[in-house]
Design goal:
With 114 residues, the protein is of the alpha/beta class. The chain is built from 4 helices and 6 strands. Helices cover 39% and strands 29% of the residues.
């Protein structure tokens, strides 16, 4: 079982791009929450998840992203997804994530919209 690693990039002092690589499971959630919480504490409340190299996301993580979006919207923030892999796009559609989190084809479109 290959666990995730991630890279982060800050754009315009208000957007964090999180590049999630490999698989992400519930036991990885504390690390992800820590990074996101630190960003929010620095008033960076617009999040782009780049999932190009992510192969699997556990359902509980999807649920966390949906709940996070609700929290971010209260503070004029948002969370969107970009560069989703074909494996994840199936889950995105089956779990109807599109009802909550928008999907963009590339980072430039996501940055412009967020």
């Amino acid at each position: 079982m290959v666990h995730f690693n991630l890279e982060i990039e800050i754009k315009n002092n208000s957007i964090i791009i999180i590049y999630i690589n490999n698989n992400i499971f519930i036991e990885d959630l504390p690390k992800l929450k820590y990074i996101i919480k630190n960003s929010i504490n620095k008033n960076i409340n617009k999040i782009i998840l780049n999932l190009q190299n992510c192969k699997f996301i556990e359902k509980n993580i999807w649920e966390y992203f949906i709940n996070l979006k609700k929290e971010l919207l209260i503070n004029n923030g948002d969370i969107v997804i970009t560069n989703i892999s074909s494996n994840l796009e199936k889950d995105y559609n089956i779990l109807e994530i599109y009802n909550n989190i928008l999907l963009y084809q590339d980072i430039k479109d996501a940055i412009y919209s967020i």
